[in-house]
Amino acid sequence: MKKLSILVLTAVLATLGTGQAREVIHKGDVVVVPLRGEISPSLLMFLRRAEKVAESSGASAIIFEMNTYGGRLDSAEEITSALNRATIPTYTFINSNAGSAGSLIALATQHIYMAPVSAIGAAAPVLPTGEDLPLTQRRDEKRTQSRRRRSVHEQR
Question: Is this prediction's pTM over 0.70?
């Protein structure tokens, strides 16, 4: 069954490059949403809108096709919260990278699939300047993130 799911997912993603985006989503469709670039407030708004349209149109599932090196933790946390409330099955297909904040989002979906030469990265908070957090703050943040991830998996 798992191999069949992977084959179906691969077939769906293979048709992405050849088809055009549709304005209308029909009941039962699988919606593929690109998640590329930096995780930011604008991406959060885009993903919220895509999830809402997919659910209200009766889509059977939503696949996030991911290629990101990460971005803002606050945006990733809000995306994670939105995914936890999804009423349809959620999938992440890591096409290339799911770094840092992207890995948090991938973990919030119900299923994760990865292309053969893809990577899911560590998620460590840093200061806006790119420097490491002070040791005490870093420990506290890691504990908080661990609790959130456990909470997501316990709810399933």
Answer: yes
